[in-house]
Design goal:
Elements (H helix, E strand, L loop, with lengths): L4 E4 L15 E4 L18 H7 L24
């Protein structure tokens, strides 16, 4: 399944005084996966686009922290 949230396992030193974080996550922007902007993309209404930060729906990605759950009210 495709997701913009990626994860990796960093190096853990045996001499690290803190408990290690075994898996770290990061989020990539959706525009990195579109090679070119196709014509006639669906758009948000202008007042909604200002709130979301983009005019085109395929480029919108609400950020969720790693411990947050997605809610149904976000259109996802």
């Amino acid at each position: 399944m495709f997701t913009t949230r990626k994860q990796y396992e960093p190096y853990v030193s045996p001499f690290d005084p803190c408990p290690p974080i075994r898996v770290k996550t990061y989020v990539t922007a959706p525009n990195q996966y579109v090679g070119f902007q196709p014509p006639n993309l669906p758009q948000f209404p202008l007042h909604e686009a200002l709130k979301k930060g983009t005019l085109w729906k395929i480029f919108y990605d609400p950020y969720y922290g790693p411990y947050e759950m997605k809610t149904k009210g976000d259109g996802q």
